[in-house]
Amino acid sequence: MLKVQGLCKRYGDTEVVRSLDLDVRRGECFGLLGPNGAGKTTTLRLLLGLIEPDCGSIEIDGIAVPQHAREARMKVGVVPQMDNLDPDFSVCENLLAYGRYFGMEKSAIAARVPDLLEFAGLAGKADALIAQLSGGMKRRLTLARALVHDPDILFLDEPTTGLDPQARHLIWQGLRRLIADGKTIVLTTHFMDEAERLTDRLAILDHGRIVAEGSSRALIESHIEPVVVEVFGEGLADWTRHHAASLCRRFETVGETLFCYLDNADTVIDALKHAPTLRYLHRPSSLEDVFLKLTGRDLRD
Amino acid sequence: MIKHLRLPLLSWRFIPVWHRNYQVWKKLAIPAILGNLADPMLYMLGLGYGLGSLLPDIGGMPYITFLAAGTVAYSTMNAATFEVLYSSFSRMHVQRTWDAILNAPLTLDDVMLGELTWAVTKSLLSGLAILAVIWGLGLFGNFWMTLWIIPVVALVGFCFGGMGLVMNAVSPSYDFFLYYFTLVITPMVLLCGVFFPVSQLPALLQGVSAWLPLTHAIDLARPLVVGNMPDNILLHVTALLVYGSLGYVIALAFTRRRLLR
């Protein structure tokens, strides 16, 4: 459905996207994970043909981008990172106006509006103004707007950034419905739980390059030990010096927490019983551990 | 900049963009039309009768007729300019409406052509309102001749719409537009024969005036109000077309650099 080979984009001396390969299958939900500035949004803009790549090729459903970007965009629905609903229009008018950009007749769009509003949980809000909607409602309307021309593939750029947990769950519910309907989804996010819940496969992007790719379970299995014990509290430095190297298969200290990665936590937990000032958290390792291992723990701005 | 400069690819996809702006305008159509009528009306009645009663005829026409012809060009220039400066800037930069549209199968060429044709429409509305005042007050020589003012007004809208889009493309904020008004629009109003004949100016300024698009607009509009065929029609029409087209192409390059990088 989406094939990308050797894609790259440079701004001056900065390589924002470096020889990127992607192969997203029809009906798949594919995640692009990465810290801020990893090149996620630039990649999406390249895929839409809004900017020209410096090298590489893109095909959406067999259509070459950017050469035939117009035809390709007919098949794509986009949920941008920043809301850009039309504030001069009501909820319903937003959908009508957007459908026109795809060359649809007014009657054809109007026939889809009730379903789209129902999907977005905005059934009673057709005549509401955009300024009257909550953040979650705006996001859902943006998602409905992206579906107005019934696209085969959806590009979602951080669809739940800035939403409260309830609103995020509603968006996820909607996305799962779309996946069940057979839509192909490409989603960028920096939320691990979002990626774990929704995506079939994902790629972790850092400095414009894919550093790992696969299902979240496969990534956890292949990149990291199955169990983590996080240790914190009084006397951590001493304990780390004396025990960490011998007890943990791999460890790192971040701020005032020791992350101890293991196959089996029993011996560490036994040892910790002799250090009453320390507290610990024992948990299975997650995608976040993989992400932090691969992209580092330094702050990205 | 140079790598963004190329001939625009025109397509009919600009129509939904025009239509979007029309739908929004329609919501406030009545006050908009009243504003279109009231503004030039006040000018013409106030200056035309008030000041005009103190003045002799100009080139054989009463001052109010002279002013009415200037106002046709001046108001339609303003209508297009305000549209592509403040309103287009809101849609492009503040509301990010253009970004949303660019995710659909439209190009920036389409979006900006939609904005330009909408500016032409606003000029037409404003021009028709003034024409109605001219008809109502009987300020014309030959009614049928005044109908030619309608295409002239569209041309003026195209010219200043295209020029204004360049400002829109390079502006960091609304405040920036003041430079354009202070340095381009206001001098043009004073140098191009809106309120008094260009022949009153020193020779040097007359030379400058001959190159300004508003002069060409007025040279077309004023004879038509009085009931004569303008001289040098081809020159004036070409000048307005060239200013407008160059503006559109340059604006497209700057906007491409701004939005699509």
Write up this protein.
The complex is a heterodimer of chains A (301) and B (261). Chain A is built from eleven helices and 14 strands. With 301 residues, chain A is α/β, with parallel strands linked by helices. Chain A folds into two domains: 26-44 and 82-217, P-loop containing nucleotide triphosphate hydrolases (Rossmann fold, 3-Layer(aba) Sandwich), CATH 3.40.50.300; 225-284. In chain A, the strands form three sheets. Chain A has a six-stranded mixed sheet, sandwiched between helices. Chain A has a four-stranded antiparallel sheet with strand order 2-1-4-5. In chain A, strands 12-13-11-14 form a four-stranded antiparallel sheet, covered by helices on one side. In chain A, α6 (165-180) links the parallel β7 and β8. Chain B is mainly α and 261 residues long. Chain B has one domain (32-259). Chain B has helices spanning 14-27, 29-51, 63-94, 97-102, 108-136, 143-146, 149-170, 177-191, 203-211, 213-226, 233-259. In chain B, α2 (29-51) crosses α5 (108-136). Chain B is globular. The model of chain B has no long low-confidence stretch (mean pLDDT 94). Chains A and B meet through α2 and α3 of A and α1 and α4 of B.
Ordered list of secondary-structure elements with their pairings:
The complex is a heterodimer of chains A (301) and B (261).
Chain A: E1 2-11, E2 14-24, E3 29-33, H1 40-47, E4 55-60, E5 63-65, H2 69-73, E6 76-79, H3 91-101, H4 106-119, H5 135-146, E7 153-157, H6 165-180, E8 184-189, H7 192-198, E9 201-206, E10 209-214, H8 216-223, E11 227-233, H9 236-247, E12 250-254, E13 257-262, H10 266-272, E14 278-284, H11 287-295
Parallel strand pairs in A: 3-8, 3-9, 6-7, 7-8
Antiparallel strand pairs in A: 1-2, 1-4, 4-5, 9-10, 11-13, 11-14, 12-13
Helix pairs in contact in A: 3-4, 5-6, 8-11
Chain B: H1 14-27, H2 29-51, H3 63-94, H4 97-102, H5 108-136, H6 143-146, H7 149-170, H8 177-191, H9 203-211, H10 213-226, H11 233-259
Helix pairs in contact in B: 1-5, 2-3, 2-5, 3-5, 3-7, 3-10, 5-7, 5-11, 7-10, 7-11, 10-11
